[in-house]
Design a protein that fits this description.
heterodimer; A: alpha+beta; six-stranded mixed β-sheet; five-stranded mixed β-sheet; 46% helix; B: 17 helices; signal (chain B); metal ion binding (chain B)
């Protein structure tokens, strides 16, 4: 029975793989606005809506004072041009539009989602244009947002997961600009001045440092008009300078943090890969097998399925402009922290040493390639891809060649790349919990 | 303002309405099958919803619906433990499951040509689960870890758990979806076998498929795989109702934390129980006036304005099996006290009782609702969720289309009327988080409701 079923599925897979058509990504068009912002656009005529995102190379890696990228980004919607925060909110809500903004290590962005009905579209675009090109940075709003960020910091400090994440990133990136905490610190947030915010804004929120992604029921001409409108008020400016390389680790580091929690949160990792890294696809498939495929990954099998140690256990490479983290995470009751650490270390060491089996590789490829249509099945997912491809200067055929790149990965490549890029003996190990003696290296 | 709305409504042409795209049938064994076509991408989501969840559980076995959900991945007569997930993964699918107060649901999102695989596996585990004791012994530990992660070590989660337990005198909504730790510790695999036998049958399930599929093909597959399954005598549910609350109830939760927090809840009717069917819609409007967007009253008056709150939210769900609560929560801004925040929130409620909301506010909400209905169509998963949830709490998926019409008819007077009737002090429960120092390193017990994925 089981054998039959599998063979039928295999046939289906082969048939789909050869049809070719299904693997094509969306038709991406790209151009530059007159101010020099790069636009990536996909027409999606089915629903009467459009998604738009403008991404600046203005994340916390550009912080002159930790937290300034986040504060600047948060203040955009809090008053711009002739409009107060209340008026901006009203303009958007009155036409049912949604606007969100966010700052990370590399990127800082503003997104809008609106109906394409003319009045809604116009009002949303006008608002977005003012928000990115004429923010007021009023002192009153700055003070309120500063306080909100301080509250958020203190919230993070009551969460063992957040405490672990922050400790990990700080240890991982050391002196690199990525070490600047996205949320800032108590001291830095207290010290930020309006001048700091203005400087950050004026240097990085400029057209040549921006990428615009548009997906929706607008034609190319309309998309071009929208992109012009949004960037019209921006200075042309310059791209942000290159970031330094992230240093590799040369020794293991253990960070133990006492915390009044019932679980210990475990994070292990090291610098990983960058966007466009030649090892990207090989390590992506390898990690999928190790800890990137949910319940069927090796880590999940060992830690959760076989031993019931953790609800969530995973690993990922988070490629950034420079090498982002390779990270393994799990949480378990304090008394089991030592056992979980041992199992994770053994699983990783075995995988680095032996690589995946042929069956594991085949299953991973089937999952990733068979699931390809899911990756681009909605406007919001396509928007994420456009923003990522544009921001990191990746080729526009990325999605078209995705499946063949995955299919081309071999066991030997995975083993070789993991051995070259992952050093189990030099990992950072962060444990936040209540029985820290568990965390000793080997 | 009027113009915008009517223009937006025109956009919502019949092709966007659920009615024109939804097809349903009922198999002979009582299983309902609902299909919604969405041909934008060659994918589909398949969801099986069971009418069972935390609100069905008697004391002593709280959390059993969720524990059983975990065990649904642990093998049947035809498939070994974990094989379900491996087959779905090999076919490019992503899968999960979730348990709520009123439902347990399982889903696979896959390329639309793989629907048959999902159906075959779901049909198999609907009746032929093996529930091996050794698998249960490990999985209940995973569930406890999930509880520690979501509740024990999360101050706001603790508050919500204690708040619900205080607020509900009779309804099982008093219990957390994930179950009390004590009950998890004493749960036996035999308890799960009994629970499975009681509720997992075709006549207690709804299959919802949304995506690039042909409804007739889906019906045929459903007949092939679910059709042969035997129906069960499903326990008849008693009509539970909460006794009228006779005065404000208050509690505090003391746990290590940095930031204070509070939840307030007023008992309210749901669509399934409302004597006046417009009332739940008026409550939806009321909540949106308070917290529907950045220009709503909480953001405008409490977060900006008086700056008494760093965050404040309001929530009401008309689509529940049993009557629930209108919830309000918030955290005071730096330098402001809990008392100031609570007073400000109560003033906003008092204002709803004494003043009419403006036509402008209602118009804003109507426009937002219409836009969000369009936006929602970007996700097959959300479309299926909406259908499955309505059906499982005992309503009809056609409400999806009627919802906008019903909301449109709500007047400022009706909003005031529900505020006067339900948002009164005697009907209120308040729980405050009182932070203890974080340097206390003794393990703490801690919370929450809502949804739990596997």
């Amino acid at each position: 029975m089981i054998f039959d079923r599998r063979s039928i599925r295999w046939l289906v897979l082969v048939a789909v793989a050869w049809s070719g058509q299904l693997w094509a990504g969306p038709d991406i068009q790209s151009w530059q606005t007159s101010k020099g912002a790069r636009v990536l656009y996909v027409e999606a005529p089915e629903l009467p809506m459009v998604d738009l995102r403008i991404v600046f190379d203005a994340g916390s890696a550009r912080d002159a004072v930790p937290g300034v990228a986040s504060l600047t980004n948060a203040l955009l919607e809090e008053g711009a041009g002739d409009w107060s925060a209340d008026e901006i909110a009203e303009r958007l809500d009155s036409v049912g539009s949604e606007m969100t903004s966010s700052a990370h290590r590399d990127m800082a962005w503003v997104s809008a989602r609106t109906l394409t009905e003319k009045h809604a579209l116009t009002k949303t675009l006008d608002t977005l244009a003012q928000v990115v090109s004429a923010p007021r940075f009023d002192m009153a709003e700055l003070e309120r947002n500063r306080k909100a960020m301080l509250t958020s910091l203190s919230h993070d400090e009551q969460s063992p997961g957040s405490v672990a994440q922050k400790a990990f990133m700080k240890t991982l990136f050391k002196e690199h600009p990525y070490a600047s905490p996205v949320e800032g610190t108590k001291e830095s947030l207290t010290a930020i001045t309006r001048e700091d915010v203005l400087k950050h804004y004026q240097r990085y929120y400029v057209a040549k440092n921006a990428v615009i992604a548009i997906v929706g029921a607008v034609d190319r001409q309309e998309a071009a008009r929208m992109a012009e409108l949004i960037t019209d008020g921006l200075e042309a400016g310059e791209r942000a300078p290159e970031l330094p390389m992230v240093s590799q680790l040369d020794a293991a580091t253990a960070v133990d943090i006492q915390f009044p929690s019932s679980q210990s949160h475990i994070l292990m990792g090291q610098p990983g890969i960058y966007r466009g890294d030649p090892d990207y696809f090989v390590l992506y498939v390898g990690n999928h097998i190790l800890g990137g495929s949910g319940l069927v990954s090796l880590l999940s099998e060992e830690v959760r399925e076989k031993r019931g140690l953790s609800y969530s256990v995973y690993s990922y490479f988070s490629p950034m402009r420079r090498n982002g983290p390779f990270l393994i995470g799990a949480q378990t009751q304090n008394a089991k922290a030592q056992e979980a650490l041992t199992v994770i270390r053994q699983t990783l060491a075995r995988f680095v040493e032996q690589g995946p089996s042929e069956d594991e590789l085949t299953a991973a490829k089937q999952n990733i390639t068979g699931g390809f249509p899911l990756r681009i099945a909605s406007n919001s997912k396509i928007l994420e891809y456009l923003a990522m491809l544009g921001f990191y200067d990746l080729p526009l055929d990325y999605l078209n060649v995705f499946v063949s790149k995955i299919n081309g990965v071999t066991r030997e490549q995975i083993r070789e790349a993991f051995q070259r890029r992952v050093q189990p003996e030099n990992l950072i190990t962060v444990v936040v919990g209540n029985e820290q003696k568990a965390n000793t290296v080997n | 303002m009027r113009l915008i709305l009517s223009a937006a409504l025109l956009l919502l042409s019949s092709s966007l309405l659920a009615e024109s795209r939804v097809h349903e049938t009922v198999l002979e064994n009582g299983m309902k099958v609902i299909v919604k076509e969405d041909h934008r991408a060659p994918i589909m989501v398949s969801q099986v919803w069971y009418k069972v969840g935390a609100s069905y559980e008697p004391d002593g076995i709280t959390g059993i619906s969720h524990a059983l959900e975990h065990m649904m991945f642990k093998g049947t007569k035809a498939h070994k433990p974990g094989e379900f997930s491996r087959i779905i993964a090999q076919n490019g699918g992503s899968e999960n499951a979730f348990t709520g107060r009123d439902y347990t649901a399982y889903f696979q999102t896959m390329s639309s040509d793989r629907l048959e695989i999902a159906m075959e596996l779901e049909a198999d585990r609907m009746r032929f689960l093996t529930l091996p004791a050794e698998e249960f012994a490990k999985e209940i530990e995973v569930v406890k870890e999930e509880r520690r992660l979501r509740t024990e070590d999360k101050p706001t989660g603790q508050v919500y758990e204690h708040f619900s337990a205080l607020a509900y005198r009779s309804l099982p909504y008093a219990n957390p979806v994930i179950g009390w730790m004590n009950d998890l510790e004493h749960m036996q695999v035999e308890d799960l076998s009994d629970w499975y036998r009681l509720w997992y049958a075709p006549n207690n399930a709804t299959l919802v498929v949304v995506g690039d599929v042909n409804p007739q093909d889906v019906f045929k597959l459903a007949e092939k795989y679910f059709g042969p399954l035997k129906r069960e005598a499903i326990p008849k549910l008693k009509p539970l109702r909460e006794p009228e609350q006779k005065g404000e109830a208050r509690s505090v939760v003391k746990v290590p934390a940095n930031e204070p927090y509070l939840i307030m809840g007023y008992k309210t009717p749901a669509l399934t129980t409302a004597e006046k069917s417009w009332e739940p819609y008026a409550l939806e409007m009321l909540v949106a006036v308070l917290d529907g967007g950045n220009s709503a009253r909480f953001s405008r008056r409490l977060v900006r304005g008086s700056e008494v709150a760093v965050s404040a939210g309001a929530e009401y769900n008309a689509f529940t099996r049993l009557p629930g609560m209108l919830l309000i929560d918030g955290t005071p801004a730096q330098g402001r006290t809990m008392d100031e925040l609570e007073k400000a929130l109560r003033q906003e409620i008092a204002r709803l009782r004494s003043e009419l909301v403006t036509e402008e506010e209602l118009e804003r909400v109507r426009t937002q609702v219409i836009a969000s209905k369009v936006f929602e169509l970007d996700s097959v998963f959300n479309q299926a969720m909406e259908i499955g949830m309505l059906e499982t709490v005992g309503l009809d998926w056609r409400l999806i289309d009627q919802y906008v019409t019903a909301l449109k008819q709500i007047t400022p007077e009706q909003v005031r009327e529900v505020a006067e009737r339900y948002l009164v002090d005697d009907n209120l429960t308040v729980t405050q988080l009182v932070p203890l120092p974080m340097d206390n390193t003794k393990p703490q017990r801690r919370i929450k409701g809502g949804r739990h994925d596997i």
